[in-house]
Amino acid sequence: MATPILSLDNMNQNLKGMEFPWPSLVVAAGNHLEKEQKMGKLFPFPNVIHSHAGDPQGMGQKPLTFFQQVMSLCINPSLLDDENFPPDAKQRARIFLANCKGHSLGAYTASPGIDVVRKQVAKYIEKRDSKYCDYENIFLSNGATDGVRAVMNLVNHSTTGKLPGVMIPIPQYPLFSALVQEYGMYQIDYFLDEENDWAIDVKELRRAVRESRKHCDPRMLVVINPGNPSGFVLSKKDIKDIIRFAYEESLFILADEVYQFNVYEDGLHFYSFKKILIEMGPPYNELELASFMSASKGFMGECGSRGGFCEIINLDPGVKKMFWKYISSHLCSSTIGQAMTYCITNPPHPNEPSYDKFMKEKTAILQSLKERANYVTKTFNSIKGLECKKVVGAMYAFPRIFIPQKVIEKAKKLGIEPDELYGLELLETVGVCIIPGNQFGQRPGTYHFRMTFLPQIEDVKIILQRISKFQKIFMEKYQ
Amino acid sequence: MATPILSLDNMNQNLKGMEFPWPSLVVAAGNHLEKEQKMGKLFPFPNVIHSHAGDPQGMGQKPLTFFQQVMSLCINPSLLDDENFPPDAKQRARIFLANCKGHSLGAYTASPGIDVVRKQVAKYIEKRDSKYCDYENIFLSNGATDGVRAVMNLVNHSTTGKLPGVMIPIPQYPLFSALVQEYGMYQIDYFLDEENDWAIDVKELRRAVRESRKHCDPRMLVVINPGNPSGFVLSKKDIKDIIRFAYEESLFILADEVYQFNVYEDGLHFYSFKKILIEMGPPYNELELASFMSASKGFMGECGSRGGFCEIINLDPGVKKMFWKYISSHLCSSTIGQAMTYCITNPPHPNEPSYDKFMKEKTAILQSLKERANYVTKTFNSIKGLECKKVVGAMYAFPRIFIPQKVIEKAKKLGIEPDELYGLELLETVGVCIIPGNQFGQRPGTYHFRMTFLPQIEDVKIILQRISKFQKIFMEKYQ
Fold it and tell me: Measuring CA to CA, which residue among A143, A30, A36 is closest to residue A436?
């Protein structure tokens, strides 16, 4: 073999350290084991249950009828003559198509997205926040992911000679740490307060930023609300405190708000950072803020469409012009994702024919998620060796595992993390695939895993029975 | 106003210099003028005709029926019972859905794409090249754009202390220069030989790489075949010479082959770099190569679906592992783009019911593009002050403009490029929107513009009549 031009030594070194859960040890083992089982190998469980990904439809959730109808009408306008499609679905499709170049989903759109969708998103945000929203601050992206990528890259600079620093909650959604790594920035960990149901403590934010200044130039503050993987939902007061902190420290706020539909506790509400920031008045209402939303989560769970949007406010006009030029090199996000975003922000109204069915489907999904969130919290806390804070938002539980010393020593010998060893043994013993806590970050010496409760309720029950069974085996084996 | 946290001085400085045609002076003026006209302002032409973007459906091309049918079936499986859909479209949709998690387009896929699509792409490549293709070397991307972004980022490193250098043809598709700028690399211009129909001259490659070594560490060689904006198609011998050069200089080859269906000259063929590289045998067949393909071009022109794929061969196994980890942080490309890619590489076979209609539609589009390519070349060459090399591939003409000295002086005073002034006056005088040559790069002292011949033939004729009229006015005004 010739010497390769590209080697581990001369490839982009930033990419070498990137970690993401999908190709990680436990998930890869889960996929491998499932393949082996399909090929006839015997295991002490009937099937592998994947409960690692935030992928509602991948785990059995049915797409909403209205969205399916509008999407198929948009993609195949000959169906507009079909009487089986309701008039409100046809109306959405007609408006969307009239705003596509060539009246076709096959054309490129303007890079920030089609104006009619950006305007609809602005209306949705105005209704959500009771605050004005300028559609020219909205850009549509492939999921929230591409929006986060673009905005973090925009702010990726330091004038002090130190690396630009990004404050990231621990535990976090690993997209943020992956981008810090890819962009060669500095990750400033701030720990969520597990004792206090994973709340954000401003004292901890101050500690983290203060200590980080030795190593970096802090530029950005990432907040995830509702929390992934924590399941926490911030109160108005929490958000105010965080905004004041960001103002004092001149930090650009990135608010991952993709779970804004996913709040399960009666009396709890989702408040957007934008709403609170505007309500706080000067000087806070002039702070720069980017808020990210996705078609992939909520009740719709339309991950495959790659729909998403970002509202970015108070950007310096010169910077905004550069940002618009930058995103234009991406051409545009998928038109089906844009059509999905249009529908999600413009669902059937009470006087429209699809309203009842739509509300029934939507409510059933959210109600079931609420039940699963409660069930999961309760059940985890009944299992010896596990402890789980109350899940009030998002789609995940992040229980703490009390790992015996023997496991820690064994993992060290194997060169893996103790929670990875836990995840592998859980998988091999009862066929449940979760993601070890170290992928999200956790306080040193504590161990967790993330389990999504997106599998349907019967499967969630089986998962918890299996975990309960495994815990007994595991504790007996190592204690 | 509070001082913004993010300013032109402390934003990512690489993004500041990024240029892309869509937000450029002439295209922006074209969009603005069209809006003014719609609002009632009078102009000396009935409408603005956009002939700047490589956007087939945006310019009136109809989507192929078979693709529309399969896509709507995939997105709305209740239509599988509808007798109006042909069985071969249903068969494609059933296979695709069976390979989606939860049997739904709404689920995430594996990051490199769904295996059944990657395997189908591999089959397509095997048939195209008569060479083995390993589906594990294929990854699906949002258009070709995201694939190019990822691979260029992978190679973005230098071990010499100099910037990594990227060889880019001039003229080029501006994605490449934009990424060089975004990633902070060094652009090595190699000039295509206009006198020789825009061919690639290996002597010029050698000159460019030799001179560049003062400033950079050359790592990559970008080739675009068929050429955008040049319209040139490389011969087998050309490709062999280029591969030998890349081998001698240890360059990673990035082959933009998105126009592989768009060859219009009888007797001319598209040869992929992969095919020729394999045929050349050792040591050339061990060279690293990434080839990019898109659903957006060809005869299908499905830009909005953001379908695309990349075949990357001979990658070091360790590097490949890192690359797979890296793309996993992007989650996955749009499922509709993946479904589209599946159909494009698996169109109706001669014994299937949709075959005749599909072939009729496909042939009509390619035949019409061929006629337009010939018509455009011939007509440009009949207009005084313009000269156009024969367009034998892709979707663009890139005629040379002979610009009078007075125009050059006027542009200098206005602080714009002479070909921008030409583009603005063309727009304001006859309502035709093109892209000035400087956006693609051109030899100093020469001026061009890129016009796509994607508008339907009647519109192409009107565009050329208008340009002809404008040329007379322009030459009289400035000579």
Answer: A30
DSSP state of A135: G
Chain A residues whose beta carbon lies within 8 Å of the beta carbon of residue B176: none
Strands A252-256 and A216-224: what pairing? parallel
User: Token digits for A199?
Assistant: 């709340």
Question: Is residue B349 helix, strand or coil?
Answer: coil
Give yes or no for residue B394 having a pLDDT over 70.
Answer: yes
Q: Confidence band (pLDDT; 50, 70, 90) for A20?
A: confident
Please measure the distance between the N-terminal and C-terminal CA atoms of chain B and give it in whole angstroms: 51
Q: Nearest-CA distance from A278 to chain B in Å?
A: 14
**Pairing of β A138-140 and β A435-436:** unpaired
In chain A, the percentage of residues whose pLDDT exceeds 70 is 100
Task: Give the position of tokens 């599909």.
Answer: B358
Is A181 an 8 Å CB contact of chain B? no
Do residues A111 and A127 lie in contact, with contact meaning Cβ atoms separated by under 8 Å? Answer: no
Residue A251 with chain B: CB contacts under 8 Å: 5
Write the single-letter amino acid at A412: K
Range list of H helices, A20-82: 25-38, 65-75
Q: Is the ipTM of this complex over 0.85?
A: yes
Q: Does B33 touch chain A (CB under 8 A)?
A: no
Would an 8 Å CB–CB cutoff place A414 in contact with chain B? Answer: no
What pLDDT does residue A3 have?
A: 77
Measure the CA–CA gap between B331 and B315, rounded to whole angstroms: 22
A24: confidence class by pLDDT, cuts 50, 70, 90: confident
| A325 to B23: CB separation less than 8 angstroms, yes or no | yes
Q: What are phi and psi of B193, to 5 degrees?
A: -90, 95
Q: Look-up: residue for tokens 């804070």?
A: A389
Strands, E assignment, B407-464: 432-433, 435-436, 447-452
Dist. CA A10–CA B160, nearest whole Å: 10
Write out chain B residues lying below 8 Å of A250, CB-based. 5
Cα–Cα distances in angstroms (integers) from residue B420 to residues A111, A178, A303, B464, in the given order = 22, 41, 42, 19
**pLDDT at residue number B330:** 82
% of chain A at pLDDT higher than 90: 93
Q: Write phi, then psi, for A290 (nearest 5 degrees).
A: -120, 125
Q: Render pLDDT for A425-442 as a digit per residue (tens, 0 to 9).
A: 999 999 999 999 999 999
Asked if A144 contacts A294 with a C-beta cutoff of 8 angstroms, the reply is yes
Is residue B308 within 8 A of residue B353, CB to CB? The reply is no
Helix, strand or coil, per DSSP, at residue B328: helix
Helices (H), B130-221: 143-155, 175-182, 202-212
pLDDT at A2: 63
Q: Give the pair of three-digit tokens for residue A277.
A: 């920031």
Q: Are B48 and B433 in contact (CB under 8 A)?
A: yes
Q: Distance (Å, rounded) from C-alpha B80 to C-alpha A211?
A: 60
CB B165 within 8 A of CB B216: yes
pLDDT tens figures, A113-153: 999 999 999 999 999 999 999 999 999 999 999 999 999 99
Q: What is the pLDDT of residues B253-293, one digit of tens each?
A: 999 999 999 999 999 999 999 999 999 999 999 999 999 99
CB A451 within 8 A of CB A434: yes
Spatial neighbors of A12 by CB under 8 A, at least 6 apart, are B153, B154, B155, B156, B157
* Residues paired with residue A164 on neighbouring β-strands, in sequence order: A217
Nearest to residue A297, comparing CAs of A266, A261, A265? Answer: A261
- A239 phi and psi angles, rounded to 5 deg: -65, -40
Residue with tokens 């708000």: A257
| CA atoms within a 13 Å half-sphere pointing along the CA-CB vector of A194 | 19
Burial class (CB in 10 A: 0-12, 13-18, 19+), A130: exposed
